[in-house]
């Protein structure tokens, strides 16, 4: 969540400009501005923070600061990072030239009234937070520019009074500088810069006025926020006196929230908190939104605080409502005989489950028996969740809202309460369980002869972990070895048929962690998919496909029977062309001339890159090139699986669309009439959105744990692959654990490098060395910042120490020449000082 053009520095009570009949406020010298940077090494300072520190109260003082910043930047002493954020260009040189060691500490504490408040056990705020805790991200700064009170100033564009078309749309935050408004009234998404958003957040509905275009795309200004969907932020609390300010974790959020003392509710400086915004400023007052702390998760950087903060950031629930828990507890364990009699009984047939070793919710089981004709009957049995969770129940409403279980690194946020997910509905061994089944007659070559769908009762004979099933596939002579080997053989035939029909083989690599009792990562590894995983997957795919086909064919004419489908559209032609050009840089050719052979081309590419350094980069980008799979009532088919019709039927314990599919299938099996499309389509859209949110939360928790893992590996060397390139750095992914960090271009040894965007590479200015996507590099972990979830690497430099020293000296001399630094005395006889600043930082959002 973000901020808009919010001028004034946040304060508990805002200082007002001196009345005209009072003494004129003193001017602010350049030396005084510079000293703030010098005395705060390691910080990035915004214009508004400087105003706060210097107690600015008048327009003239604001103009002074702006003039000094501009002058210091022109001299090369300060660098403008983004918006109005500055840092010292070379902290070491400026500090040494302007400040004797004996005077540092005293003067810093004299000028910083919060020096004592902002320390914990002797640690400065910048150490505690990893960067300046109050950083404001704006494209323009409202009154922060000189003459900003004058609407004609070029730094402050006047609000449009009229003339542009007014439309309504939904906000999609893109960066800290701008958002897009998506509207059915506009063919293109409208870009709105954050100083024109009126504090709108992602998902909010707004009215905006179009005001022309930039770079060929429409731009506009928000006139009114008509609906705020979730006025909450998660971030770190920073105290200034008795007033708190919450700096959002989400880097796209462009504003902070001020929290009055009485609304802190016990939260302390440095805590990770959830704040609810209770008051949004009206117009261009320059105030920040005001909020109330709803939850304090504890000190930022601690495992429980950070994981809970991720849950809050993505709106994930912390607990079930009391009525939901009570309702689940009231469901009887016993299965009535009348219910058993209306179901097909599989309790006498060999049945088992295969799941991860730490799983507790077993929502699918397989049964197998040989038929008299020599064929095999394989049953895919799915927990009959909808038998227990009925429409109108609190359980149903909560499951519909959650829509999916969320699997964070160290915990599961289930869709259903534990009594259902791990108890009543879980297909535990040696217990009778109610199921909804898809039963298939197949031969040993994988040919399908018939399908049956209906309600069943099973009794699982054995609970296998994937590792145990894999041992039997690989030859271990033990219980159910023959059955598992036969089913694995049939599954491989089914898989071969899929790929023959055009299925695509690209797969993402799943990162797993070994955690200690406190959740601290002891190791990171890539989960290996073996035959046992693929066997279960093939039979689940078969059930999902055949359920979808069955419902689709029940009514041969339009309108077809309403069903929940899982669809995956063919990739966009432009994105596919860009991907082909990218793959070509690595010597891989994609022939896109025949759409019918596209899947074969992609599969050939997938095979080509296996074992090569660019494998993960190519496969990841290929998946990103594809459209996203979603839920809908429109049976458009699944491009990636090469299925004409596909549904989700096999995981109702953890996915609400599977519950919808169960209800619809049961309704049609009983001869029910067609269901209305619109309500089900709305539920499909909601489930798709919740699935996307869950995936983002899972990625955030993985990134956090990767950073935490590397915190204890500072200085360690790893082999990595170039996974991204920008103008300020290259991203490297460690091969063994998929942790990704950045190497700053300025820190690459041996030469100065420039980005060649067209060819996805960096090129050395003198030595012409090329660094490109997929290159294998040796890196050393330089830093890992838990609070920002960022990792910094440096390239291994095996050159002699004398060569390294000479290069460092040459670079330092080059910086001095470019700056042309000359100390100047202020009107008060002081000297400009130097401070440190953290460069832009590894702010890539994954």
TrEMBL record:
E.C. designation(s): 3.1.13.1
SMART domains: RNB, S1
Record-linked Gene3D superfamilies: Nucleic acid-binding proteins
Low complexity bias (residue ranges): 9-20
Compositional bias (Basic and acidic residues): 802-827
A cellular-component GO term for this protein: cytosol
CDD domains: S1_RNase_R (cd04471)
Transmembrane segments: none
Location of this chain's protein in the cell: Cytoplasm
Domain S1 motif: 715-796
GO BP terms: mRNA catabolic process
Skewed-composition ranges (Gly residues): 830-840
Keywords recorded for this protein, A-Z: Cytoplasm, Exonuclease, Hydrolase, Nuclease, RNA-binding
Catalytic EC class: hydrolase
PROSITE patterns referenced in this protein's UniProt entry, alphabetically: RIBONUCLEASE_II, S1
Catalytic activity, as annotated: Exonucleolytic cleavage in the 3'- to 5'-direction to yield nucleoside 5'-phosphates
Molecular function as annotated in GO: exoribonuclease II activity; RNA binding
Domain of life: Bacteria
Disordered, as annotated region: 1-24, 97-121, 141-165, 802-846
Family assignment from sequence similarity: Belongs to the RNR ribonuclease family. RNase R subfamily.
Role description: 3'-5' exoribonuclease that releases 5'-nucleoside monophosphates and is involved in maturation of structured RNAs.
UniProt protein name: Ribonuclease R
Species annotation: Hymenobacter metallilatus
